Amino acid sequence: MSLGSSPESCVISWVSSSEPNPDVQFYNSTESDSNTGSAYFAEVQMSSSSSIGYASLYTENRCGTTRLMSSVYIEDCSDLSNGYKVRNLQTTSGSGSKKTPVNSFSDLFCGRVPSASSTSSISSIALVADMSDYMFSPGEYVSSIPSMTDAATNGEIDLVIHGGDISYDIDDDCGRRGDGFMNAIQQLSTTVPYIFGVGDHEGGRKDLNVDCHAPSSGYDYEGFRMRVGEATNAGQMIMAHASGSPTSFYFSFDVGFVHFVVINTNAWIHACQYWMLKPQMMWMEADLNSVDREKTPWVVVIAHRAIYCVKNDDSECTTESEAMRYGLPEAAYKKNINIGEWIGEVKGHDNVFGIEPVLGKYKVDLVFGGHTHHYERSYPSYDGVSVQKDYVNPKGTVFVVGGIAGVGEDAFEEEYADFTAWRDETYRESWGHLKANMTHAVWTQRLANDGGALDEFTISRE
C-alpha cells in the first residue's frame, strides 16, 4: 500500500503472474471474513472520482520470468481497517465479455492511512535504509521487519519510508530475491503505507561505455521502477505525480506535520546519471518553496547516500559526501568523470548542484540516509562543521545515518568529526522512529530485535 494523490487516498498494488485485472473486496464495520454480508467489490465501491488501474509490470528477458502488477487507486481509504482482499480477473470471450477469477482471493488485510494533521495528533513514521530479510542470509543479522510489523500492528507507526537498498538486490536471481523481500514485508506494507526511495543497489553501478546523457543509459533501475509502478503511472507513481515529479527517483509527500522529500543521491556520484541533477534540483527547490511551514512545520529529506558521515578513508564519507554537500566540480560534471575517480579536493572548483545551500535556504530540519552500514547522528551542521551542540531552535540541519536496518555492519575506523553527536559502535541492527507535533520532533533509534530504544534526541522549535 502506498499513498495516493490526496491525504485520504491510497493505492493498493500487488504482483502476480496472472492477468492484471484487479479485483478488491472490501468489508464494512458489520462484516467479517467469514460472514461477508453485503461486502462490496472494487467495481461497486469506486466513485466517479476514483479509478481501478492495472498495468503490466515487466518481463525479465534474461530469465524469461514475467511479473504483472495490479494497482487500485482508492479515493477514501478510511474503511480499510475493516479488511480487504485482492485477486485478479480475466475477461472471457463470448457475449458480455464476462470476467472470471484467475486466482483465489488473498489473505484478509486490515490497513490504515495516516490521519490528516491536527493540533491534537502526532505524526509517527518509521524510517529505514539498507534492509534485507531473513531468507537470504539466515543467522548473519537481524532484520527490522518483524519489529516494525509489530509496531504497525500495535498502532505505533503510521507509515514506513525505505530509503534505498532494498533486499540486496531487488533484481537478483531473476527477481526472486525481490519477490522474497516483498513477501516478507507483506503484513507490514498492507497495514500501513510503505514508501520506497532508491539506493545504489537499485541501480547506477555500471561502466561508462554507454550514452551518458540518455535516461535509459544502463541505469534504468528496472526492478525498482517497475515494482513501484513508474512505467505505467500506477502504484507509488500516483503519489509522485501529485508532488509535481515525473519520476519515482524524486518526489514528496506529507504525513501530518512533516513534509518528506525523497531524492536520488546516485545522480551526484555516477557520471551516467549527471543528466538527472538539473531537473531533480529544479523540482526540489520548487517543492521546498511551496511548503507551508505553518501547517507542516517539519521538513525531512530522504537521501540514501550520506551527506555527512564518518567511516574510513574510502570515498563514501569523503569525496562522495562532499560532492553532494558542495556540488560537483564543474570539470567533473562537464567531462563525465565519476566523482569516485576525482583526484584532490571536491570543494572550490566552481561547483554545481550542491545540495547543502538548498537545505540551508529552506531550513530543512533533518536528512535521513543509509549507505554506510551503521547508525550515527550529527549536531545541527552546515559547511562541514556543527553550528551548535544541542537541538533547540537549530541553525543547521541534523543528519542521521541509519543504514543498518538488516544488513552487516561497516566499522567506524575514524574518530568523531566535529559534527558527530553520537554513533553506535556496537553495530546493532536498528530502525528510526520519528514522532512529531507542531513544536517537537523526537527521533528514537529502535533495536531490530525487540524494538527497544538504542538512541533518542529531540529537535525543538520554541
How does this model look, in words?
It is built from ten helices and 23 strands. Strand 13, helix 7 and strand 14 form a beta-alpha-beta unit. The chain folds into two domains: 2-101, no CATH class; 123-460, 4-Layer Sandwich (Purple Acid Phosphatase, chain A, domain 2). The chain is 16% helix and 27% strand. The two termini are 36 Å apart. It has 462 residues and is α+β, with helices and mostly antiparallel strands. The chain has a seven-stranded mixed beta sheet with strand order 12-13-14-15-19-16-20. It has a six-stranded mixed beta sheet with strand order 11-10-9-21-22-23. Pfam families: Metallophos. Keywords: Glycoprotein. One of its GO terms (molecular function) is hydrolase activity. Residues 149-375 form the Calcineurin-like phosphoesterase domain. It comes from Triparma laevis f. longispina.
Which key features would you list for this structure?
16% helix; 7-stranded mixed β-sheet; Calcineurin-like_PHP; 27% strand; 462 residues; 10 helices; Purple Acid Phosphatase, chain A, domain 2
